[in-house]
TrEMBL record:
Organism: Hahella chejuensis (strain KCTC 2396)
Domain of life: Bacteria
Protein name: Predicted redox protein, regulator of disulfide bond formation
Xref: Pfam families: OsmC (PF02566)
Family annotation (InterPro entries): KH_dom-like_a/b, OsmC/Ohr_fam, OsmC/Ohrsf
Length: 143
């Protein structure tokens, strides 16, 4: 896996993934940026969320769960001192579908957290406390 980061002027950088996709990262105006993209630390959270969501949906699909939507809401805390590393991350899954059962969704979330999500496991080994929970919604309850 490879990636290239190119300076775009001021506090803007363009990341190019090995699969050929570009992502603009930028800083806030008070740090020389123009707010044209997410911050690099936000990208870490997005990567974590994408990794674990991919796992959860893959496991639920294999379990033949009738999922119509899956949202991962992520909240994070960072250290006050430099380096301002993540200290705690919480991932709340909102899984919407028909006839979904708690044990099936719990198993998918647990397997992602404990076995499959490389991003989550890597961050935990680095000292980040990561917690997970979920709620199940019926399609008519979705907002």
């Amino acid at each position: 896996m490879k990636a290239t980061i190119t300076w775009g002027g001021d506090a803007k950088f363009i990341g190019k993934s090995g699969s050929g996709h570009d992502v603009v990262m930028d800083g806030p105006p008070d740090h020389g940026g123009q707010n044209q993209g997410p911050r690099p630390m936000e990208m870490l959270l997005l990567g974590l969320g994408g990794c674990t969501s991919f796992d959860v949906m893959s496991i639920l699909t294999k379990a033949r769960a009738d999922v119509t939507d899956c949202v991962a809401e992520i909240t994070a805390e960072r250290a006050d001192a430099v380096p301002a590393v993540f200290t705690k991350i919480h991932i709340h899954f909102i899984v919407t579908g028909r006839d979904l059962r708690d044990p099936v969704v719990k198993r998918a979330v647990d397997l992602s957290a404990e076995k499959y999500c490389s991003a989550s496991i890597m961050l935990e080994k680095g000292g980040v406390e990561i917690t997970h929970d979920f709620e199940i919604r019926a399609p008519e309850d979705a907002q």
